[in-house]
Design brief:
Layout (H helix, E strand, L loop, with lengths): L2 H18 L10 E6 L14 H10 L4 E2 L8 E2 L2 E8 L2 E6 L13 H12 L8 H7 E8 L2 E6 L6 H4 L16 E6 L3 E6 L11 E6 L3 H10 L4 E3 L7 H4 L5 E6 L5 E5 L9 H10 L2 H9 L3 E3 L22 H10 L5 E8 L2 H15 L3 E8 L1 H10 L4 E5 L8 H6 L21 H12 L3 H18 L2 E7 L1 E6 L2 E2 L16 E2 L1
Length: 496
């Protein structure tokens, strides 16, 4: 079914359901019902695979620090004090009031055991490599003090320890909720009474609903309380005036981007990549597809971030210049393949981008795949164009993972983040320097230079930072949206 026809049918259904639904609460008074578009495979933070796993983990397991803040800077969570002993040694003192969900105290031995399980040479944790590159060991030097031994000085240390602590004996967490049940279709959570700020509503149910239309119908029909970043944005305006729905939006630290395979014989030419960037009318896409709920991107981090640099090259739409660059590169009748997921909304955006590229003589074939297949192809470099979103960009050290040549996926490290296969000796040098520089002002200068180089080299086209959009039942109040789109706002949410 064509996207426009599908959208039309969904709108009709929304109108019918809204007209027929009684204005009474359909979810339990003591439970906030949330929708996830994908199943959650693990609640253990050491084995979280998807962003949905991670969101669930953050509700159950608290870290020593937390990045659930509006300024993207870490705050203490389980930690009371964080003290550098020398450039490669840090002591973290745990709050004596910190408790796991069974009331047991959070001890330094739990911290040491959590990290030891990932640092061990035979660890099967997905975080083994990342933490092994940072830490040599973590030890408990007394009941409430954990000592971290670093391989090199790390400016990222406070952000690095935003990782859920697992009780060594019981495997429980110290987050705002405890897990009661996890299946392929739902997660049931109970408020942790020992959390510093106990949740205002006793229970949370996260239901897995894959279908876009079904999610919207459930919201309009009253069988769900809250949807965050899981509603088709081209339908949000169709439901915002429904009497039982409230729509809220706030800026995010997540980037949507068009990736280009820099190893492709055609796309390795800088002029071709620049021409593609110049062909895109991003403001028009934001207006038509997002209802204006996105911020134009100049690079990986958004304007609200402390490390953002705005005075970089900007590739605003310029079709004559784009055509001239292609001619200069000797490119004529270019045919490219654009891979994307099977999500109907993302396919519709891909088709708009394809149509805009056609205006400069580039024919684009859009192909959609189930995400697992799509992602494997991207990691293998089996694509020309593709679009994705980053994870949460709280720390500018993410430039290291996304643009370091050592992070190009290879068989021995298929999970490297540099999936566009970009290579720059200067960016390699700067991202290493930025990781080690402890002075924030100097770090800002370093990452500003990284942003300038990447804006000129265009290894990817930064498209926009989509707002975090929340649709909620009018009976729900107090949900706070955070830039990294975690669900920590459920703690302050209540039904009335």
């Amino acid at each position: 079914m064509p996207a426009a026809t599908s959208r039309h049918h969904v709108i009709i259904l929304l109108v019918v359901v809204a007209a027929c639904s009684p204005r009474t609460r359909r979810t339990p008074d003591d439970t906030i019902v949330v929708i996830s578009p994908e199943p959650m495979a693990s609640v253990d933070p050491r084995y979280a695979i998807s962003s949905y796993d991670s969101k669930l983990c953050k509700l159950v397991y608290a870290g020593l620090t937390s990045l659930d803040t509006l300024d993207s800077l870490p705050r203490t969570d389980l930690a009371d004090q964080i003290t550098p002993i020398d450039p490669r040694t840090w002591d973290v003192t745990i709050k004596t009031s910190a408790r796991f969900s069974d009331g047991a105290p959070v001890l330094a031995s739990d911290v040491a055991a959590t990290y030891a399980s990932m640092l061990a040479s035979d660890s099967d944790s997905l975080f083994h490599r990342g933490f092994s590159e940072r830490f040599t060991s973590v030890e408990a030097i007394d009941a409430h003090t954990a000592r971290f031994h670093l391989r090199e000085p790390l400016a990222t240390f406070r952000a690095d320890i935003d990782f859920g602590i697992v009780a060594a004996r019981t495997k429980l967490g110290a987050g705002p909720y405890s897990l009661r049940e996890l299946t392929d279709t739902r997660a049931l959570l109970d408020a942790n009474p020992y959390y510093a700020t106990p949740a205002r509503t006793p229970h949370v149910e996260i239901r897995v609903v894959r279908n876009d239309a079904a999610r919207m119908l459930m919201l309009v029909g009253g069988s769900v309380d809250l949807v965050q970043n899981a509603a088709r944005l081209d339908l949000v305006d169709e439901v915002r005036d429904r009497p039982r729905i409230h729509v809220a939006a706030a800026p995010s630290v997540i980037l949507t981007y068009l990736m280009m395979n820099n190893d492709d014989p055609t796309l390795r030419d800088l002029r071709v990549r620049q021409a593609i960037a110049l062909a895109l009318d991003r403001p028009a896409i934001i207006a038509a597809k997002f209802g204006g709920r996105a911020v134009l991107a100049t690079g990986m981090i958004p304007p609200s971030h402390w490390a953002y640099r705005g005075d970089v090259t900007r590739w605003n739409r310029d079709l004559p210049r784009a055509r001239a660059l292609l001619a200069e590169a000797g490119v004529h009748d270019l045919h490219l393949t654009y891979k994307t997921s099977t999500d109907a909304f993302r396919i519709s955006i891909a088709k708009v981008i394809a149509a805009q590229l056609a205006e400069i003589g580039i024919t684009v074939e859009v192909r959609s795949f189930e995400f697992a297949t799509f992602f494997v192809d991207v990691k293998k470099g089996n694509y020309q164009l593709a679009s994705m979103q980053t994870g949460e960009i709280n720390e500018p050290d993410m430039y290291f993972n996304y643009f370091q040549s050592s992070r190009i996926p290879v068989p021995s490290n298929p999970d490297g983040g540099n999936r566009w296969r970009y290579r720059s000796a200067e960016v390699d040098r700067l991202t290493v320097a930025g990781r080690a520089e402890l002075d924030m002002a100097r770090r800002k200068v370093i990452y500003g230079e990284v942003q300038r180089i990447l804006a000129d080299d265009v290894p990817i086209v930064p498209l926009w930072h989509e707002d975090n959009v929340v649709l909620e039942n009018v009976d729900v109040a107090g949900y706070q949206i955070v830039p990294n789109a975690r669900l920590i706002g459920l703690v302050t949410t209540i039904k009335h």
